[in-house]
From TrEMBL:
Signal sequence segment: none
Name the record gives this protein: histidine kinase
Intracellular or extracellular location(s): Cell inner membrane
Domain Histidine kinase: 20-242
Organism whose genome encodes this protein: Prosthecobacter vanneervenii
Amino acid sequence: MEQQFLRAQRMESIGTLAGGIAHDLNNVLAPILMSIDLLRLTSRDERAKEVLSTIETSARRGADMVQQILSFARGVEGRRMLINIRTIIEDVQHLVQDTFPKDIRFQAEFDADLPLFSGDHTQVHQVLLNLCVNARDAMPKGGTLRVSAASLEVDSNYASMTQDSKPGRYVMIKVTDTGVGIPQNLLERIFDPFFTTKDLGKGTGLGLSTVLAIVKSHGGFLNVYSEPGNGTTFTACFPAAEGLNEGLAETPDEKHPRGN
Ligand code: ADP
């Protein structure tokens, strides 16, 4: 308990510090990005345009990282609505198919009787996207990225074995890759803020800590199973909204308004 409290305190200080730095960095990056647009409009020199593109790619990557840090620092207050996970997975599927390397095959699979759940659409989207981006990075030579959603009944036996779950019905989302896997000795650290094994400038180390914070703030739980050399599965479970039907999906959830 003491340890958990200290960890929460440490996370909070890291969040505050990182948020301050990210805010300042944003102020540095914004004028760079605006100037690039301006120069592109006025320049006729092809070589200069190429250089501008390089500057823009780096500045945008920096801006993406800043956004990640800011959303981590802000915490996970959100606007709750009833979510049909199928629509979010289909959105992510389009994004992945448009932007990921072509040697990564995407498969989606859904249970027919998927329950709805109460959640923040943007945050749940972010959970899936972060997990998919990690899956992509774990498959530099290509492979299969599988996202599935199913209904899960957690009984009191199962709940007593895990720290985070309570008995009840959940929407279980699995993101599986056929990538490099995670060595046993790193499994404990991957959820720590700023822990990354990626090259400098490629990862902030905030993806999984953000995923974990979002899932927890929804009353859910998160598991990881990995076989080095064969791949990894992340399982995120969100408590189902009982007694509601599909027709209500994606409408504001009055029972769980903002920040609940
Ligand atoms: P980042 O992606 O910026 O490194 P994350 O918090 O998302 O930060 O991930 C932390 C680390 O966990 C990664 O650097 C990587 O070592 C490991 N990791 C996460 N997902 C996977 C995966 N699907 N396969 C292999 N390693 C992973």
